[in-house]
Structures
1.
Amino acid sequence: MTLDPVTLEILNNKVAAVTEEMCVTLQRTGRTLYVKETADFACALAGLDGRFFAYPRSIGVSGFVGLECAPTIEVVGDLEPGDVILTNDPYYSHGLATHLPDLQVIAPYFHEDRIVAYGWCFVHCSDIGGRVPSSISPTNHEIYQEGLRIPPVKLMRRGELNGDVALFLNANSRTADANMGDIRAMLAALDTGSRRIRQIIAQHGTETLLDAQAELTTYAEKKARAVLGRIPAGTYRFVDYLDDDAVSALPVRLSLALTIGDGTIHLDFTGSDPQVAAAMNIPSRGRPHAWLTLRILAMIHTLDPTAPLNAGLLRPVSITAPAGTIVNPDEPAATGVRHAAAIRVNDVLNGALGLALPAVMPAASSGTVIPVVVAEPNDRGGRNVQVVEPMIGGTGARQGVDGIDGRDSGISNLANNPVETVEAELAIEILRYGLRPDSGGAGRWRGGCGMELSFRILKDGTNVLGRGMERLLFRPWGRNGGRPGLPGSLVVNEGKPGERWLGKIDVLDVGAGDIVTFRTPGAGGWGDPRERDPASVLSDVLNGFVTIEGARQSYGVVIVSDAVDEAATLVLRAKCTSEERVVDFGPERAAWDEVFDAGAMDTLNAHLLTLPLARRQRYRRDIFAKTLGQLPEGFPRAAADEQAKADARDDFVRTVASLKG
Amino acid sequence: MNSTRDPLAAPVSSAGVRIGIDVGGTFTDFVLSDPRDGRLVFYKEPSTPDDPSRAFIVGLKALLDQAGLEPQDISVLMHGTTIGLNAIIQRKGARIGLVVTQGYRDVLEIARSRMPSSFDLHASKEVPLVPRSRVIEIAARFSSKGQMTLEPSEAEIEQVAAQLSALDVEAAALVVINGYTAPQAEEDIAARLSLAAGVPVSSAAAIWPEIREYERTLVACLNAYVQPLIKRYLENLREGLATEGITAPIVVTASNGGSLNVASAMERPVETILSGPASGVMAAVRLAQAAGLTDIITFDMGGTSSDIAVAKAGSPALATQTYVGGLPLVLPVVDVSAIGAGGGSVIWVDPHGIIKVGPRSAGAKPGPVSYGLGGTEPTVTDCYVALGYINPAGFLGGRMSLDAEAARAALAETGRRLGFDGSPSEIASRTAEGALALATTGMASSIYKVLAQRGLDPRDFVLMPFGGAGPTHASLLAEEIGLSHIVIPMAAGTFCAQGAAAADLRRDFVRSLRLPLEGIASLRLAETFQSLTRDGMDWLDAEGAGQARNFEHSADMRYAGQAYELRVSLPGADLDATRLADAFHEEHERIYGFRDAAAAIELGTVRLAAIGITPPLPERPIAVPTSSTAVKGARSIFHKGAWIEASVLDRAALRADLRFSGPAVVEQEDTTVVVLPGWSGRVDALGNLHLEKVR
């Protein structure tokens, strides 16, 4: 190292603070909900290699520390002082942008005619055109439907706005003014970064700044390697499923082989499903992309919170993400709701890491984020559209600690909306917004409870949207004998005439008086529930997280008049049969796996990738239709008898085997 | 809402002796102001944390003796306390219950549904103030327009009251959804419940009728949580004082920089919980104003951390989003932000050989290595000692001597782990200077961020340090930020007590309206202000305020469809729609750089501050120093890698006309001021020490 340990730490402190000050500037001057309330933005400083050497810790989107600016900068070519690059396209920017509403800007910071660093910001803008308002719909199947594609262009030339670019932008958005407001806020943030970089150079010199960029990333890399070195070497496999891809009923498979050794980690996603004809593809371009490594970063940070947040953390991480799969789609796959798949990627990373580090990693969290939206007719002939609540569930239990009820920061850490502000804006009455008893997976340590939101519609002609509903079928899994959480659900007019249990919805039509109830899944438990301290079960019952019936059935604990009946509990617990599973996915997944054999699924997915893109989905649907046709309608939610499953499995394995050659 | 005249609240005479008392963790500080002869008397008594009123009474008697005054000479006691804050942080408040609208039992469990960290898989959520087992649902509800859509029957009240009684609670809070639209109706339900259950039930909407159920619930729960404790303490205190013949009214300082009388403080103790830091900031703002300075950054550096606050045009910035013991508080409070290291912050080396300062603190015990109380890890204070900033023999006015050699040895050991070469002495100096530079960088970065949130540039401000280490560290910090002016008041150690002695009476009132700014909005606004002003007047009367009163008006507004509101100060209560709109457009343009003249505007929460003005403390022209020479001698301090000779001055001997240049060290009873090379010092007529960067 050329920098002494004091100077390096001073620079570490300063450059991280610069990114936070950039964020503060952006948030203060930004204009839209995404910036102000949900903080869906970030700022960072990139080195000459285009990778971030400084990233904010306490504000903005936390997961994008691994993004790369270099491909975008290369496309634009020569840069001059005052230039600012704009892009939003996942393919042209090689994964810097991951869906079109994220407007990305990069400014070169010059000192004495040479570039010494780059400032970077992004904001999720309200609308960038495309088929639907807000530009995002799970049912888009090509990126062309998702709005204006902006390849890397100069938004600013030598400090002047490029009017042609502005014309294109304004002509292609439903919220052009708001977008320009947020772009101005990003420019203000880039200015803040530029000013502070000049100040650092004045205080410490250019060479110190450049040395610090290299050495801070090396420092982070060393810390990451030290953490990874503590994990037992080996290869850990984990497979999880999305319930479906929003345009068909077929589950979407995510398969991971995670190999640890010698302070490095390799993620092999081979065996994951081909890219889907819907908008949940993750455009990683085959790199250790932010959306494929979020849980790794969180794990490193958990085990060493002092590690600086920069690209060095990801240097020990390598990846295999076959082209044409959901984790590395080919152009022009739609990517608008890539976070829906990223939630499940988080689960497979968590699951595989948990096999290596059972004492550190939790069971599955609830694994869903549903912005419940109401669109109601207004007096002006249009519609009021408003998020009621972003519905999440809880976090999984881990060794020694219960999961957290009704909170989950796994993929995003959004604030909810006060019920009173929602009722002031919309003609609905929110009847219940609370935790869902008995939903958390049973275990020696209990999984976090899911949530319930129930509201009465007061206006006819209202629509309810619940995009992002997941884990209605495949449950959040439990660990080391812990049970899975309850799946989510949606019901209209529960317990009333005209009760309707619905699955996933895109747009639901409701009228005045209808009562809509969303329930999110509970998270997975950890350890054998019969080993849970009866006093903890009693406490859960007194607090209402578990019912008396739940205590009896799931924990074998008998509670009478607010006390544990110890004798009856002993008897009951002795009668329970144990089913120790390392991972308990729940009955639906177990049934699915019995038919759709893991090895055959790997083979099928490898074969599908050899087919032309245009034929893959049809081919895949046909194969599944054939096998599922031999099983009861609604399988695997609907149970099938053992013989039917065995026959179907044989048929599936035979079909796949015949594909070879 | 309704204030009735309290017999305990005798009018506060502005003519009599005022005494400010601040109960801190280590010392209870007293400041006595006698307007008859313009005297200020200071006194410190070691605190008695098991029963803070003991040190209060003992110290007060000693103070009176020292000043040669009798109990009946006191016209008012102005008191700051951290009892409420400590109870919340340690979760040692009362056993309380919560009654909420049916369907909302989880209002505290869900909170705003965020985790403290999205990167820490082992992070946990805050412990709710009221466990779910003590939350009861009630069939009561309002619509967003203020109609009662679910009215609790007598049977319902009886049933909820029975449940409440069975919980064996000392107090309870009531929160009805949309209660902010009908605070009186909610207060009536609380009264019925209280009567039936036989415990005090505070209505959230009556205390703070602002939209947002979770935050309002917390205000009510925090209030109930600290109420029994504070009530007992104030009652004990009053009794104890009475047996000593002291019957002067007690006024309690508030988090908003003002104060309230004992009866109000017992009713709404939640308004007092952040009064400690607020008082210090208020004292700094007043002293700065007396010295003709209106834009300051206060810098309070203590043992475990450093805090700053910003004042512009002579008023401190208030925040309505702050955290107490991990819980958000929406009441307006003087905005104090933690910015990093304190004197006790530990200096350490990570496994990769990189230096770190804090966040762990050595605290008072074992404390810094130089204290000789068993501390083995060097701290920021040890760096001051090692670099000659602090005279080891003169710490705390000579009452404590420090072991400089032990500090240097510990720092040399740290330096070796950093890979520094040279003699132990060289390594120690280099390590100490590096650690201070790192600590300074952390503080400066935080200041940039705090000011960026308000769109301010720190270089437009004067730095006003206080606390034990503030004046020692101030010029390092000013150099790093690029500030050119530092003002160090006399007796910065008893700042909070001074702030208390001069505090105005102040209470904030809110009402959430949520109307489009057209048609009847300006009428409704005027009506609301009238009603709030009446409440404010009643309150000030009940507090015994004099006729010097002030009312500050503001409103939260936004463009229709915008997701966020902007707080706009208003010149008065009676504004037509055009002037309201103008005020909003102007503020929007100032903050965001644009206005949207065509867009509809919505009026949100309306705010009124009712202020009873307390006469300022007498200005105290600097006394003629008793000692003829200010220069006590010289000693070496380490700066930029070399030992340099600094003159040592005695603060008590500094005359008003004296000017000197750095490097210098000014020693005073409670702290040491370091003046770096390139800075000059002067003392103004009021005794404030000004340090200015030589251009």
Note: The radius of gyration of chain B is 27 Å.
2.
Amino acid sequence: MSRAVQPGSAREAASRGRPVAASVSRSRNPGMPLDLHAVRSERVNRPAADARAATLTTRRSVKQAWQAGWLLRAVTLIDLTTLAGDDTPGRVLRLCGKARKPVREDILAALGVEGREVTAAAVCVYHGMVPTAREAMRGSGIPVAAVSTGFPAGLSPLRTRIIEIKESVAEGAEEVDVVITRGTVLAGDWERLYDEVAAFREACGDASAKVILGTGELGTLANVKRAAAVAMMAGADFVKTSTGKEPVNATLPVGVVLARAVRDYFRATGVRVGLKAAGGLKTAKDALAWLILVKEELGDAWLDPHLFRIGASSLLADIERQLEHHVTGRYSAFHRHPLG
Amino acid sequence: MTQVREAFRTPAYGPAPESRRLAMDWLQGGERSFGHYLGGRWTDPGELHPTRCPADGKLLARFSCGTAADVDSAVEAAGSALGPWREIGGHARARHLYGLARQIQKRSRLFAVLEALDNGKTIREARDLDIPLAARHFHHHAGWAQLAAAEFPGHEPVGVVGQIIPWNFPLLMLAWKVAPALAAGNTVVLKPAEFTPLSALLFAEVAHETGLPPGVLNIVTGDGTTGAAVTRHPDIAKIAFTGSTEVGREIRRVTAGTGKHLSLELGGKSPFVVFDSADIDAAIEGIVDGVWLNQGQVCCAGSRLLVQESVEDEMLERLRARMETIRVGHPLDKSMDMGAVVDGAQMDRIRGFLEAGATDGAEIWQPSAGVPEDGLFLPPTLCTGAPASSTIVTDEIFGPVLVSLSFRTPAEAITLANDTRYGLAASVWTEDLSLAMDIAPAIKAGTVWVNCTNRFDAASGFGGYRESGFGREGGKEGMWEYLKPAAGPRRPAAAIAAEAGVRTDAELPVTPLSASADAIDRTRKHWIGGRQRRPDGGYSLTQLDPAGTPWGEAPRGNRKDARNAVEAAGRARPGWAGSTAYLRSQILFFLAENFAARGGEFTRALQGATGMDRGAAAAEVEAAIQSLFAFASWADKHDGSVHSTPFRNITFAMNEPVGTVAIRCADEVPLAGVAGPVAAALSQGNVVVVAVPERFPIPALDLVQVLETSDVPPGVVNVLSGIHGEIVPTLAAHDDVDQLWDFVGDGLSGEAERLSAGNLKRVWVDREGSVDWHRISGDAGALLLRKATRVKNIWVPYGV
């Protein structure tokens, strides 16, 4: 993409060094006018993206203390998520407890890290669970994210989707994970997509707009890149791979393409937009692969909860096992770690 | 655990060392001294040379520097093993090769660590590229061994093969050489590079353990003197060499006239062409893989970036950003992108190029991170603004140096891409299919990667155009390099000629002019650029009939005639190569038609010139017509193929014309021996310069009248007569002649081979008499078609 740099829009992400939980005072993406030429001229070579994704993890190896350190960081990037039809307040409270203390304190102590440094980045729930989560997270500094806009298909009327966002924000959601209408991408109706995301963003107010592209349903990697570009132009604070409900979720090649879209937007505007990988990340190894991807394609600035999230539910348990292994030298078991 | 906290707060890559313990155990902690592996036994160590790890200078082992006597023993052992190895048959050889493939896999990490230590390449590359590909080559060629009888009927192994390999991919280059040679039934004397002998020595140990029969594989370590002993050894039937163009040239000269088969895989300065329609990020990763793989010490490195001017600034900006993330460090660290340069001398050479480039006005850019101070490390380097004449643009640097140039149009991209003496590989980046398919065939290189780079596989041939050498390694095209037509009951041309009453033993083949007694004076001229031309020197020669009386006159060509003919051919070359096979086929059929219409006249000319009887002369005319028909038929049937490479891509092998072919014709078959090779060359889109038979030029000169009336475009065929010693050396040395066919096979042929070293044109001296022009067999036809083409492999990955 080659776009004019928008003066005044370049604001550095606040945090450096010590990872901290996201706060609402972070800089926002002001967006820019839709640049149709830039969107339409996006090209992605699939085999090359696949090759890049496949070799990212063979080019870099994070071992020993560095692996433990990186996994702790991964924990701080997790949007701890429950999005099931049978969610109840009790289930959500347990999740919130886990978000505050994602890793056993004795393990953290053995690793030389203080407990308050290691919390999840956010908890992510359906609208109905926002009050419960909000209450549970009070004073933690950990934001509550609501999935919204007719999640996961995003096909309810625009009017009600806007209302949904506003109500979630009114209930205390500091972040809103919105889904786009995938059909706009498949039809190449970029103006409609832009308007939709801009409307979502406006409805979010001070809450962060995390735009789910549903990459598994966009058909091509070029479409992924175009959709991400449009979402960012319309003011997305994050671009996010998936709802977790599509048949194909956050794959590394999609990650490579999204990261490059984010990088292009930064080159063009000076604005850092966040990236969220969601769905299908289940193992510590998956998490490390994504961290390597983000570090290599976007740089260290993005390895921060302001700019990179991993949406997951079962991932944390595997990380905990690896961390305990690092401490004890023995391979660990799931039941040794408190349930999230 | 402060390290964990530190790594938590700052996400840096820590060290990720691969253990060297098992490799050092094998090397006895650096104390091991190796002899040679000859005839299934290890010799006592001789004069020892050290081999060191370029990353830290540590001694790894000592190896013996092979003497001429060692090479003699190796060749003798290989010679004794040759018969049995051939006779055990393809299946037994397949079992051995399969075993070698599996043993490489089973010891893959030891091989990888050894390779990284000895060469300085990263463990990642050794682990993920060198070693798996080496195993793949043995696996693939186990298959060729199994199928040899079925796939290559009428062929036999060449004999004892001398192989000399470079230091950049030590085990992989061994595999590329040894696997096809053994599969075809040859036995091998291999000399690894002096910087990197270790993986070959481990391989010898493995081969020995798997029960490879003694003498089938012999490894002689050493330096250039050892290599020279191999290339000069009289009992070696073929030399296969991979290395620098300079050494390749020397080998060409040394082997000239010896009858040794030769394949050379030499240097390159491969273009990496990026159009504005490319996925630029993908292209940048391609550059990283293309020019910084193995510290740029790759013959096919895409070291000449040609980028479309409209995206040049953006591309270079992004490229520099990407270069900042390239990590250079100890090759055994699993998180390194680049390791060490192989040797101090190589390091100095690379730095010399950079200094020269800077003097020439190039901007030399390197990322800010720097490289470790100890050890032979160089950062990835980008040169911009270099004048086209600078050596960093024209010469192979063999280091981590990318030179960037820009172009405006696809036509200019092709011109720049081909503006080089080399022709090994090219990489083309665009998402525009019709553009890619236009550019790939237009670039003169043996491999063209579309939207990818440095892809290799055993099922696809690899090798060069131009001064990047000749011959292919991998695939069926590679197997031909290790086979020759089986010696059978073949009719030597001389015997046929004698039978037909042709006297080729006249004391003077042609004599200075004395007028013949034609009713009306007949004037035969050269045919150059579609016009009949008198010889530049103004001299003619008289052809005597068998009774010794003057029978006709022929122009006495000289070096200027040869030069003019080559220039005319060069002008006709693009048009003819670009013509359709259908058109070429029609023209050859038409030629045959017009020739046949004048068959009686040619029969009489043959009789008169050579003294052969009418029946033999008519038979030769008939043979010439058959040849024309055969190659007219083959014009649109010598199809390429699609290789089964293990990637999601199409790897298609195109048979492309070689270019300008100079043909030296023999006296024994004065007419069919001219029409046949000309038709073969023309059928595949080559243009030719023919030196007609020295003793009997007139029948061939009369062919000109048929050519003139058969729609052959001007310059596509050029006909010269005269004393071969006065024209052939000019053709052999000419830098714009791409290939020489010599059907005479005398001392001048050897001289021609020597002279060909200048531009490393392909030379085929048919000393074995593979072609019987009186009746073109299927095998001979296929051989001619292979000689008339060179294989270009185009790789096109696909996917959405």
Note: Residues 269 and 395 of chain B are 7 Å apart (CA to CA).
